[in-house]
Description:
Layout: E1 3-10, H1 24-36, E2 48-54, H2 63-75, E3 81-87, E4 90-92, E5 98-100, E6 112-113, H3 114-123, E7 128-134, E8 157-161, H4 173-185, E9 192-193, H5 195-206, E10 214-218, E11 226-227, H6 234-237, H7 240-243, E12 250-252, H8 275-289, E13 293-295, H9 301-306, E14 310-313, H10 315-325
Parallel strand pairs: 1-2, 1-3, 3-7, 7-8
Antiparallel strand pairs: 4-5, 5-6, 8-10, 9-11, 12-14, 13-14
Helix pairs in contact: 1-4, 2-3, 4-5
Amino acid sequence: MSKSALIVGIDYYSNPKYKNLSFCKTDANNINKLLMNNGDDESTPNFETIYKVATSKDTVINAVSLKEDIKQLFASKHNETVLFYFSGHGSISASNEGYITTSDATSMNNGVSMVDILKFANKSPVRNKIIILDTCHSGSIGTHPTNTKLSVIGEGVTILTASSLEQVAYERVFTDLLIDALDGSAASIIGQITPGSIYSYIDKSLGNFEQRPIFKTNTSAFVEIRKIKPFVKINELKQIVKIFQYASTIYPLDQTYESDKMVPPEYKDKKKCILKNHVIFRILQKFNSARLVVPIDEDHMYYAAMNETGCKLTRTGMHYWDLVNRNKI
Length: 329
């Protein structure tokens, strides 16, 4: 599946009314590196990227050229997924029209209009279109110009922004969390990172912080933006339906599941470990680390075995049990 991304960071602004920024190049560079390759064992190729940054008068990014780059990104016909990321100043006009501010901007309605960006995405023949904006007022993208309660997002378009229409975006906050998310913090049990999981991670991380990310989408299924090494290997995850006959099953444990090494004195009469049980127990411990399984009446799986209670699936574990049971994994 072919993927392309346009990654832009603007630190330098010609007009003194716009304060030069310090970290947009760094942010764009980090995002570029993460998107180029997956984080799996083979570091498999991911997005083909176009990377552009403005750090001085010699590297300015003007509105005309950037608008054309964005247009060409979404006009591509051979890609399954395209992604546009921008870090820099953002502004909003008196009529509530948002702009990503380019190096040559001289007023609030200079730069590339977010309305134009969305038009390019909405008309794009590409199946999955992702727009990520780390700018002030970026939440204006995707809203109706005269009624901000209405959405104008086309099919297959997903938007993630650093702030709402009214808010400023503090430098580094949003993209630092985005980088963490892409680096694995937003990954599922099987290592998939999607726009939805990224938003969920950023939203939870910000808590009650006054800057709120905005997530808008018109898609029936989330596309995988990046994948990392799974927390639980697929072949081990598939054992979940063999270990637990039903999603509601309580799996009994006893001392034969735990190894005989370093046994505490209070368990000096421990039952001898049985290898086949210990192999299952190792998988269950991985499930527990991935929050798929919890011990019964104990804080740790070790004591669930030593005190011969058992374990059960969490709600997340039940979800993955169902996916495996229906051959979705």
